[in-house]
Amino acid sequence: MSGTAEDLIDRRRLRRKLSFWRVAAVVFAALAVLGIALFSSVGGRSAFSTRDQIARVAIEGLITEDQELLDLLEKVKDEAAVKAVVLRIDSPGGTTVGGEALYEAVRAIAAVKPVAAEVGTLAASAGYMIASGADHIVARRTSIVGSIGVIFQYVDASQLLDTIGVDVNAIKSSPLKAEPSPFAPAPEAAKAMIRRLIMDTYEWFVALVAERRGMSLAEARVLADGSIFTGSQGLERNLVDALGGEAEVRRWLEDDRGVRKGLKIVDREPEEEGYVSLFATARTMLFRGFGLDPRAASLETALLRKVGHLDGMVSLWQPLDERAPLR
Description:
Elements: H1 2-49, E1 53-63, H2 67-78, E2 82-95, H3 96-110, E3 115-124, H4 126-131, E4 136-139, E5 144-146, H5 158-164, H6 188-212, H7 217-223, E6 228-230, H8 231-236, E7 242-243, H9 246-256, E8 265-268, H10 278-289, H11 299-307, E9 314-316
Parallel strand pairs: 1-2, 1-8, 2-3, 3-4, 3-5, 4-7
Antiparallel strand pairs: 2-9, 5-6
Keywords: Hydrolase, Membrane, Protease, Serine protease, Transmembrane, Transmembrane helix
GO molecular function: serine-type peptidase activity
Transmembrane segments: 20-42
């Protein structure tokens, strides 16, 4: 019995020790993550912000009205230590309003310091709209650029509703209210209304490209039929200024715009307001791990961005079959 009692006591002591070290390990890991977050958001970025640099801002994925990104662009515009800005664009486009807001933010930066756009895989539609706000566009030979245009899509589910026996009734103040509707075929007046809306935005987009790329409106319209181009084709058509990557961007900034040689290119990201949140840091790491937008404020928002939830008119390149190989 004494041996059994001693064994029980030893096991309890061992459990206490294991519990202590488990708790200590969790606390240490939490403090480590918090310390890294504090350094990167307070120490690291603050230190960078007081040192002369070239700020690089990523514009990726579907473009929406992103206030945090707009705030970041405003910040790098006003920072005296930022001598130039590089926009790293990899986007199929998005809402025209989101593209317009970012384009205007880019032009505000260009009014006070050099701005270059470095195209990754894709800068199409609203993505190209934003790139055109830069003073110099660099793309890879096989990058995709263009898709200048606007689209408004709606669903006509009236046949499906008829099949399952569902009637949708509405009392409206006027015939064009809430048209086009997914519950009935769109009347011709509604189609004409949407076309007027689309063409007004399209003409603005074409004029923007013509002005920024030094073309006539006629030349811009030839390119604004929704076509996409490789980087090399874009260079031939004056949609791109040079082929290459970071080295070409740096060469232009230093040789053509007089930016001091050797400045560090610092990746800048939107920051959390107020204090650094451990949970926000963990959330960002989790979203990145699953390929979701790390800037999303919630899982729901991240999932919606992932599947491309957009409202209103969009300037968005949409391949007919995403499974088809690019040629």
